[in-house]
Design brief:
mainly beta; 7-stranded antiparallel β-sheet; 36% strand
Amino acid sequence: METKPVPGVLAQVADLIGRTPVGQRGALWRLGADRRQLDANVIRLPAATEVRPHGEADLDVLLYVVDGGGHLSCDDGGRQTTLAPGALAWLPRGTCRALSAGATGLTYLTVHARRPGLTIAGPAAAPEAGDAACLLHRVCVECGRLSGESDALYCSRCGTALPPR
């Protein structure tokens, strides 16, 4: 028998920010409940750092600025928006975006539909020759997400730079 998820407060974001060293980058918190339909992350960018242009091909993303400030550039830098606490941005699927932190850093929450988990399929036909493709350059070292884009440079979940090829 499955247990029903219990609603409630998951984190105090001000406490997360207060406990985090000023220069730490990446996810401060992730939604980890089982049987959820959403993914959510609290991400921190230290002062004067950036998340280079990237996109989410399949999902809309909601971005909420919790602390600090910076800029959001959409569609290859064609439009730039100043971010401050309380700013709420909708990034429709396919939007190319980049973030840059201001002098005090930038902490933001992202929320999007959860991607279905990987499933185990039956045995595939063996290739006639060659080695299996290595996807390690597409796995985020910070949150473990596999990028759906072969040319991605940054994780679309937490903004961490992906490993070099």
